[in-house]
Amino acid sequence: MDIDGAVDMASSLTVGGAFTSLGIDDNADATAITIASNETVTLNAVGGNSYSDAASKVLKTAGTQHTILSVETSSTGGHNAALELESNGNPVVIGTSGDDKMFFQTNAATGMVIDNIGAVTMPLQPAFNVNLDADQTDLAINGRRTIEFDTERFDVNADFDVSNYTFTAPVTGKYQLNFSAQLSDFDGSSNFVGFHIETSNDIYMYYHHIGGGANANADGSGGGALSCLADMDANDTAFCSIYQHAGAAQLNVVYTGTSFNGYLAC
Known about the structure:
By secondary structure, this protein is mainly beta. It contains no helices and 25 strands. The two termini are 51 Å apart. A hairpin with a 5-residue loop joins strand 12 (109-114) and strand 13. It has strands at residues 2-4, 13-15, 18-20, 31-35, 41-45, 48-53, 58-61, 67-72, 79-87, 90-97, 102-106, 109-114, 120-121, 127-131, 136-139, 144-146, 151-155, 160-161, 166-168, 173-186, 192-199, 203-209, 220-232, 237-245, 251-264. It has 2 domains: 36-121, no CATH class; 127-264, Jelly Rolls (Sandwich), CATH 2.60.120.40. An 11-stranded antiparallel β-sheet has the order 1-4-5-6-7-8-9-10-11-12-13, with no helix packed on it.
């Protein structure tokens, strides 16, 4: 059955108990909808034809047969119900699983899950946590010295490079970055030790003053921590550094209390 043009219900009339439609234009020059004998529906949509497959309950584009809309109610693929949208062969799926979880998938990868208590997890969200394998000793003075983080506890999106001790932002966003360091053998005659998170856009810093008072001319140990919410563009970098002003070049970074971690916040 072919229906040409559009139906205007507002212009339909009832004459002598019979329904008469004035909305079907017999001068139309294009087929809008075709319903075949197997109940396949073809729509002459903007940008090209599309059709529905009654067997798989999907609406697809003709020719390339990419899925526009799919409603699935079986447990196929590990979920009980799913809404699938596809463009240029890249599917986006919103569905539920048998354990009452709702999930969101892009390109066959699950990016977000809402479980049955309402907790939200994002297993692909960029996040990392790195440490030192051994102490970094005798840091040179009067300059920022990069902390050589060479051991990964985890690196979800493989964005941290242990060869240059640097995190690279995969996408533009706001990143929560946290740096903590345990120090030993700092020279009591030094004025201060600075802790830095250095990004492509800014340097975030905290300074711990050593010289003067009871600490004057007395070697010691201590530590510091620094956190920031950094504005980073895609491919911007971040690394950590220590700066000792004056004193002897004997400062050590102790591996057991030193770490650098971060994640994409928004």
